[in-house]
Structures are given as C-alpha cells and as structure tokens.
Amino acid sequence: MKTRHYLIIFLMAIIITSCNKFENPNPNPGEGNMNDLKVPASFDFKTTKDIILNISDSEEVSYDIYSITQNSEPTISYIDNDTLVNIDKTNQLLASGFTKNGSLSIKLTVPGHQEFLYLKRKKAGSFKAEYLNINNQTTINYQHTNFKSLKTTTKELIYAVNGNGQAFYIDIETGETNFLANFDKGAYACAVDKANNALYIAERKSPYKLRKIDLSTKDQTVIGNLQKNFDRMDFDPHGGILYIGRGKWVYAYDPTSASYITQYKLEGPKANLSGGDLAYAGNNTFYFTSVSEKVLYKGVIHGNKIKTELITSNLSNKTTSSDLGSDGYLYYATNSNPSKVYKVNVTTGADEYLYSSVSATNQKFKANDFGILEKDTAPPANDKDGDGVPDQDDKFPDDPNKAYKIWTPGENQYGTLAFEDLWPGLGDYDFNDMVIYYRFLQITNADNEVVELKGFFLNRHEGANLVNGFGVELPIPPSDVQSVAGNSITDNYITTSANGTEAEQDNAVIIVYDNGDKNLGIEREVTIKLNNPIEQIILGDAPFNPFLIKNQERTFEVHLPDKAPTSLADKGILGTGHDNSIPAQNRYYKTQKHLPWAINIPVEFVWPKEKMEIIKGYLKFKEWAESGGSSYPDWYIEKDGYREPANLDVQ
Q1: In the 8-state DSSP scheme, what is residue 5?
Q2: What is the DSSP letter of 73?
Q3: How many Å apart are CA 172 and CA 155, to the nearest integer?
Q4: pLDDT above 70: percentage of residues in the chain
Q5: Could you tell me the sign of the dihedral formed by the alpha carbons of 390, 391, 395, 398, in that order?
Q6: pLDDT averaged over the chain?
C-alpha cells in the first residue's frame, strides 16, 4: 500500500512542478513533434564513436593524435582584427602517447561524423605526419614505416629572407653572407626546420603560399596557402609545428599541410608588435621584438594566451628579424639594406653589434626575417624524471608518474550534456533544463595507464524551476580513488566518503555539484587522483555515466539513454510514468517511443528556446534519430540547412 500511495503522490508532483512543461509538450502541434518520430528501439542517441588505435613502431617514440574532419587543408579566413574564424572546432588534439617497447594502444572518443585521425610521430625534434581514415572502424592498427633520418650541418648559419624574394645565409661567427635562392612574391617571415634541413617561407602576397626550400638540394615546394600575410615565424623542433605571428596574435600551423592548429593572443605588451619577429625558445616560451620600437619581450603560453613581460626597451636598434643561437643569445637584424646583425643577452637585454649582411662580392642583403640552423640538429634526449620518456615529449618532465594527456572531446573543445528533468514524466524536448559544457582529461604514465582524471564542467544554462544537482559515475570501485577535489557540495543531502567519492555506492560516483543554481556560469575543474594506475580500457569512455539529480531528491536520477542508474537511485521509479526502462534488457531512460531525457553532444550545443522541441531548431535531428544515427551524424554542426536560429537560444 505504501508503494501505491508513493507513486500517486510522486506522479502528481511531476505534473505540478517545474515549468509546467508536462502540460504542453508540443508548442507547435500542426508541425509534427518528437512523439511522432519513428525511432529504432535499440537506438541510444549516441553522437560519438569509440576507437581503439593500436600503433606499432620499431622504436620508442612519441605520438600526438588529432581528430580531423577532412584530409585536406581546412578553410581559414580572417576578419580585420586578425581574429581567426571558420575553423572546424572538431580539429582537436585528442591524445599523446609513447610507444613503450614499440607499441602504443589508446582509446579515443571522437564525434560520430569524424572522418580522419591525424598522427604525428615525433623523434628527436623531427616528425612525420599521416592521416588515417576512421570511417566505420572501431579498431585501427597502424604500423609505422620509413621515418625520415635526421640530417646534420657543419656550420651554424643564419638563414634569412626578404620582401624582394631573396633567400640567403650568414655564417653566424664570421658574418660571411651568401645567396641561396629566389622565390615568388617575397616574404617577411621564415623559419628553419633544424631536423629536416629545410627553410619554411611565408610569402607576403596573395595567395600567401607556405613555401619549403630543401637546404641540401635547394629544391622548392609549395606546401599550401596561409590565406594571409604574416610578419613573424619560427619552428618548434620538438612539437614539429610552425608558430606564425601577426599583430597581437600567434598561430600554430602544421608545416606539412599549411593547416591551422590553434591560436594564442598576446597579453601585456605596450609596444606595437606589428613587424618585428618572434623566436621560439622551447617550453612554451617566446621572445618578441618590434620593428617600430627598440624593445625585447619574453612571452609564455598560458592556456590560449601568451603572457608577456618587457626585458628591455633599450636595444641598439629597432628589429625586423630574430632567432636564438645555440649559445643562448638572441640574434637580431635591423630593417635596413644591408641589415645590421646584433646579438643580445635575453636575461639582461644588453646587446652588441656584430656585422652587416654583405657578401664577399659586395652584394647587400636586407633580412626581413631569419632562422638559425644549429650544428647539433638533434635535441638531447634528456629524461629528468627517469620515466623513459624524453623531456621534450613528456608533458610532465619532472614527474615520473605522469607523462601524457588524453582529451575528450579535445584539448580546447567542450562537449555538452543537455537534460530534461521531468523524468519519468514526458518533457518538452527543448533539452534546456540543465545544459553543461564539459571536457575530460586523462593523465597517463609512460606505460599509457591512467593515473589521474580531470573533469572541466561549465554549468551553461538552467531552464527549469527545479534545483538540480549533477554527478558522474566511473566504472571503477570507490576504493580505486585516492582523492576528489574541486567539486561543490553545499546543501546537505549528499554524503561523501573520506576520499571524496559519494558514500554507499558500488562504483565511484563524483558529485560535481548538488545545487545547479549556485553553480550557474561557473566552470569547475574536478580532479580525481587514483590510488594505482588503471588501463584505459577499464576506465571506459568519457563522459562516462553522467546524471542529473532531480530537485535535490537524491534517489531521482536522470541519465543518458541506456545508461544504468547508480546504487543510490530508486529503482522502483523505473518503468513508471512515461519511462519504459527494462533493466533485464539493459534498457534505461527511454520512453515507449524510444525517446531520451538526456543527450551528449561532442561540441558546444546551442540549446533550443523554452518549449521549442529540438527538431524545430536542429532540422536534421529527425532524420538522424529515425535512421538510428546513420543519416546526418553531424546534425549538431552549424551548416547550411541544419539549423533554424529563430528557434535556438543564440546568446
């Protein structure tokens, strides 16, 4: 009798509470609604796919893995203030790893429409890049072959270019200057690839080609178009990327394809950094000079910014080009013909004049940019923490227990969890009662085992009258967790154990926050340290098993479709109201017409307006759902014909 009374009271409460959504689930009945969809019973509304990448290599080297939606140069365009736009946000760094004993296995979660992985193999400052097609594959076996051997030089030389289309080189010790090659359009930016004995040149006129000169053969290759003129450039031999600068922006590019990777905004400099140059010093550190002022700045990457500090404003001359020599000095040249070359102590800012760029035949050269080719092209394989991973590839070179990072959905990308909170009552399918942007970081050791997990959760929107909580269940016992930090438990209905996991749970459950209203607009970085390393395959796939706690009633949980409730959920509610969960069939949180109360989307989701069903804002959702995910797997991407902005809460 008690159970019957409980259910009657419970169902009445559903009708009364929240935004009265249950009374009018279809605001536009004449246009069709979610309940008209013919969804396959087995469809789980999954927008991602899980891939196991097995890498075989004859050597112990590092790999970076990116998700790429195409195997050609991404479309890049600019607006007047140099802000980069129209870059596909799913082009993201996913993971890094080390081929311990010649093999590496990484479990990745990528958007369902993803077509390619992009592999970068790194060894002693040199790298090889390759695209892998991942369509309809759950396991990819990649075997490395034919890595290009490193080349060496006999002298330390300054390689320079100018706006007249000349490339030349200067003996750094004697000042002896020699012509190298002519090229089209001229350039204000170049960089030396020390490992592959090559010079990259960014041409200054449309279509702004990225050109490569083989310094052994003098053969020239056009890699692609950069879409814009750049003033500054240098090469990172450890990461295998080009840093290209313009104004207060520094962009990272892949030199094998001229494709954009990411961007950073300079913060702090008062000087006009148009023109001038940048020199990459390793460890996310740069030096910047200016063509309009006698200044030298130091900058360090922090997130998506480069924070700078002034070293000196008293250089002997204004600067058009610079790079670091193997002696630790910064060499720079003036904007004159011939250019005057100086070297400067990067600690004190003191500089001295060396020579002018004049050849033995009295030919004068102007250096708009240069790079230095060192005698020792292979960086030393230092390993301070003794974990077997060289420092230049180790994300944690001072910690023997940590080496690499695995991101979901990407290093600089949010995914989205969007909930309806009227379960087991029927919602209005605007999926805006709670909208959480998330990303997960798995930190691994040299054996590619997970030692720490971080979750970044931004409570982006609360569209309901209820006060809801949010948690994540991991597929490991609570005893595997050493500690939890960064979450918010304030309202006295959650009980935690000493290690920070929720008490009386069979699996490790992390309550991110117990009051969504108090956390609206706040990003929480939740750190979960493990007692012992865990294989990726055991830890499973991010975002794991996230759930909403309805109206601070701890036993009321709303999960993604076909995800089981935790130990503390009231299993008696399953199968009541509009819920058609059948635990014996591993069916959970679906209606009789197979619709969900929550969805996971691997990008930043623009939620529908209040009482506006998702099919009215995302016009390909219907075909996707009715096809069981085979049609329009990219329904959430902003493309022509995919969205009706008037029905979305565009902010």
Answers
A1: H
A2: P
A3: 8
A4: 87
A5: positive
A6: 85
The rounded distance, in Å, linking the Cα atoms of 49 and 52 is 10
| Exposure on the CB side of residue 279, measured as CA atoms within 13 A | 29
Q: How far apart are CA 218 and CA 199, in angstroms?
A: 10
Give me the mean pLDDT over the 46-63 stretch: 91
Which position has the higher pLDDT, 242 or 156? 242
Cβ proximity of 530 and 451 under 8 Å: yes
Signed CA dihedral, 514, 516, 519, 523: sign only: positive
| DSSP codes of every residue in 607-641 | PBPTT--HHHHBTTHHHHHHTTTSS-TTTTS--TT
Specify the DSSP element, H or E, that contains 436: strand 434-444
Helix, strand, coil percent content, the chain, rounded in steps of 5: 10, 40, 50
Residue 611's pLDDT is 92
Question: Which residue is it, tokens 């691997």?
Answer: 602
Pairwise CA distance, residues 470 & 515, whole Å: 8
Model pLDDT, residue 217: 81
CA distances for 344 relative to 110, 314, 322, 366, 378, angstroms: 46, 11, 10, 20, 24
Asked if the bond preceding 475 is cis, omega within 30° of 0, the reply is: no
Closest by CA position to 368, among listed 557, 231, 195, 219: 231
Instruction: Give the model's pLDDT for residue 473.
Output: 98
Q: Give the largest CA-CA distance in the chain.
A: 105
CA atoms within 13 A on the CB side of 33: 17
Question: Which amino acid belongs to residue 348?
Answer: T
Q: Which residues are CB-neighbours of 300 under 8 A, at least 6 positions away?
A: 284, 285, 286, 306, 307
pLDDT at 569 over 60: yes
DSSP alpha helices (H): ranges in 374-418? none
What the block records as the tokens of 188 is: 């204000």
Exposure string of 40-71, with b = 16+ CB inside 10 Å and e = fewer, is eeebbbebbbebebebebeebbbbbbbbbbee
Least confident of 181-185, 221-225, 259-263, 565-569: 181-185
The 10 Å CB-count burial string (b at 16+, else e) for 335-360 is beebbbbbbbebeebebeebbbbbee
Q: So what's the pLDDT on residue 136? A: 79
Give me the sign of the Cα torsion angle 613, 618, 624, 629: negative
Calculate the CA 490 to chain-centre distance. Answer: 32
Mean pLDDT value of segment 356-385:
73
Selection from 54, 125, 192, 142 nearest residue 390 by Cα: 125
Q: What is the three-class DSSP state of 539?
A: helix
Give 81's pLDDT tier (boundaries 50, 70, 90): very low
Strands (E), 16-154: 48-56, 62-68, 77-78, 84-85, 92-98, 103-111, 116-123, 126-133, 139-143
Cα–Cα dist 378/125, whole Å: 6
How would DSSP label each residue in 144-175?
---PPPP---SS-EEEEE-TTSEEEEEETTT-
Q: Which amino acid is at 583?
A: P
Q: Tell me the Cα Rg of the chain.
A: 28
Dihedral pair phi/psi, residue 401, rounded to 5°: -95, -5
At residue 647, φ and ψ (nearest 5 deg) are -100, 5
Look at residue 443 in the predicted model and tell me its pLDDT: 97
**Residue 482, pLDDT above cutoff 50:** yes
Judge residue 300's burial from the number of C-beta atoms within 10 Å of its C-beta, 0-12 exposed, 13-18 middle, 19 or more buried: middle
